[in-house]
Design a protein that fits this description.
Blueprint (H helix, E strand, L loop, with lengths): L6 E3 L8 E2 L2 E2 L6 E3 L1 H9 L10 E6 L2 E6 H20 L4 H17 L3
Parallel strand pairs: 1-4
Antiparallel strand pairs: 2-3, 5-6
Helix pairs in contact: 2-3
């Protein structure tokens, strides 16, 4: 068990962790409240997490998958959906749409 205490960052103290338009706190030792995330989003500050490993269930066994691999799989699904459901075949257009969707997902933008 990790003995390090996590730092709660909320709307009440988020300004202490912003410097030069960037979030100075990072890693798995912080917890951002929804209010803090809203303030960061309104200031145009991206929240970037280290590449944690997450569990994915595959055929009854657990597999570790990096966030980078998840993004690549999500992009492939988006592109496949656009081809099959919307008939888009232009590779550049497909890639651009997939990138925009993933960016919006990462920032929580609708």
């Amino acid at each position: 068990m990790n003995s390090k205490k996590k730092q709660l960052i909320g709307a009440h103290n988020i300004e202490n962790f912003i410097q030069d338009g960037k979030l100075t706190a990072c890693g798995s030792e912080i917890i951002l409240t929804p209010g803090a995330k809203d303030i960061l989003r309104n200031k145009g500050i991206s929240i970037c997490y280290e590449k944690p490993l997450v569990e994915k269930k595959c055929a009854g066994k657990k597999e570790e998958m990096s966030v980078d691999k998840q993004q690549k799989e999500a992009a492939a699904i988006i592109i496949r959906l656009l081809r099959q459901e919307y008939g888009i075949d232009n590779s550049k257009e497909l890639q651009a749409i997939a990138v925009r969707v993933l960016e919006r997902m990462a920032t929580g933008e609708k």
